[in-house]
Amino acid sequence: MRLATLLGTGAAVAVTAVTGAVATTPEVESDWYEQLRKPPYQPPRQVFPVVWPALYADVAVVSASTIDRLNAQGEHKKRAAYQAALLINLALNAGWSWLFFNRRRFGSSTLLSAALTASSADLTRRAVAAQGGRALPLVLYPLWCAFATVLCGHIAILNRRR
Prior knowledge:
The protein has 162 residues and is mainly alpha-helical. The chain has one domain (3-158). 79% of the residues lie in helices and 0% in strands. The chain has six helices and no strands. The longest helix has 27 residues, at 76-102. The chain is elongated and about 55 Å long. The mean pLDDT is 96. Its main location: membrane. Keywords: Membrane, Signal, Transmembrane, Transmembrane helix. It is found in: Membrane.
């Protein structure tokens, strides 16, 4: 994996993380969020600042490796398609934070989360197709997004009258 590629995917992921954090942090610390009804399987607040950076690092590293592998194989169209899929995925990721926390649109954010899950699964499929088992750590990303979709939908149901 080339350092320049890793710096590029790392920068894209960092922009996503910062954009999401700007929408999330003030709201998570507010009375509004505390008063939301949440399902019993809602992870403790301390889990999210551990899980998301690990997933973001995984996305950056596996994506850089995948992009370089596709480039080395002369698969320039597949490389460009992967890069486009990555950018769409990161936009969906950042968008969810704004829709849920900033706009407080639970139903819409559940639909966006489902789209993010599908996008994450597609990104993982592309990475595994390009580099096999070396991309398997990326499987954790769509799994977490699927869990988040269920959680978001359940929060939407529990708080539909708010």
